[in-house]
């Protein structure tokens, strides 16, 4: 059995590896969602004119990797207090969002966000939004599995995020 989860947490290059390496994950695809242009290109999304957010679509086996665990992993890859982007990636196309595909996913995400807010881990409010999933458009091939294709560039792009994760999680 397979389910789908969609998470936006800044540059999708940095969002693949944390999920790709987990048991029960069938695939992690970089792409764009939430906009008003059909089948956008990377350049169009970067122009901030399509309304899309960079995201990853995860196909997973909930018997091995429950959605609750995916949401926990998600929080630990992002700065949930920054609504204007993530780390060095700024703008609405990099905003943090959990896109739910069912009412059950919505409930799990909302409960998890509330628990994170109440935990006191962050001094600022948790601003990650929880929104219904929209059409997901896979990104161009060169964006897929980027951490494996270009490890040096991935490390450069991942430095600020890695430092934040180490400090906060």
Protein model, in words:
Helix content is 36%, strand content 24%. It has 169 residues and is of the alpha+beta class. The strands form 2 sheets. It has a 6-stranded mixed sheet with strand order 7-6-1-3-2-8. The chain has a two-stranded antiparallel sheet with strand order 4-5. It is globular, with a radius of gyration of 15 Å. The N and C termini lie far apart (31 Å). The model has no long low-confidence stretch (mean pLDDT 94).
What is the gist of this entry?
The protein is 36% helix and 24% strand. It is built from six helices and eight strands. The strands form two sheets. A six-stranded mixed beta sheet has the order 7-6-1-3-2-8. A two-stranded antiparallel ribbon has the order 4-5.
Element layout with pairings:
Elements: E1 3-9, H1 13-20, E2 25-33, H2 42-46, E3 53-60, H3 67-75, E4 85-86, E5 89-90, E6 96-100, H4 103-119, E7 129-132, E8 136-138, H5 146-149, H6 151-168
Parallel strand pairs: 6-7
Antiparallel strand pairs: 1-3, 1-6, 2-3, 2-8, 4-5
Helix pairs in contact: 3-4
- Low-confidence parts, pLDDT < 50 over ≥5 residues? none
Quote the beta fraction.
15-25%
Trace the largest sheet across and list its strands: 7-6-1-3-2-8
Helix count, DSSP H or I runs of 4 or more residues:
6
Q: What's the mean pLDDT score?
A: 94
Distance between the termini: 31 Å
Helix content: 25-40%
Largest sheet: 6 strands, mixed
Shape: globular
């Amino acid at each position: 059995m397979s389910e789908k989860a969609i998470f936006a947490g800044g540059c999708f290059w940095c969002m693949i590896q944390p999920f790709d390496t987990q048991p029960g994950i069938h695939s992690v695809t970089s792409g764009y969602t939430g906009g008003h242009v059909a089948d956008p290109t990377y350049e169009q999304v970067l122009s901030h004119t399509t309304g899309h957010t960079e995201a990853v679509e995860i196909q997973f086996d909930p018997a091995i990797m429950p959605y609750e665990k995916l949401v926990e992993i998600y929080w630990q890859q992002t700065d949930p207090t920054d609504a204007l982007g993530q780390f060095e990636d700024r703008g609405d196309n990099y905003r943090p969002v959990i896109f739910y595909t069912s009412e059950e996913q919505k409930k799990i995400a909302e409960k998890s966000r509330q628990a994170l807010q109440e935990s006191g881990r962050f001094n600022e409010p948790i601003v990650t939004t929880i929104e219904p999933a929209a059409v997901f458009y896979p990104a161009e091939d060169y964006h897929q599995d980027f951490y494996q294709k270009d490890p040096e560039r991935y490390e450069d792009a991942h430095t600020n995020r890695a430092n934040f994760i180490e400090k906060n999680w």
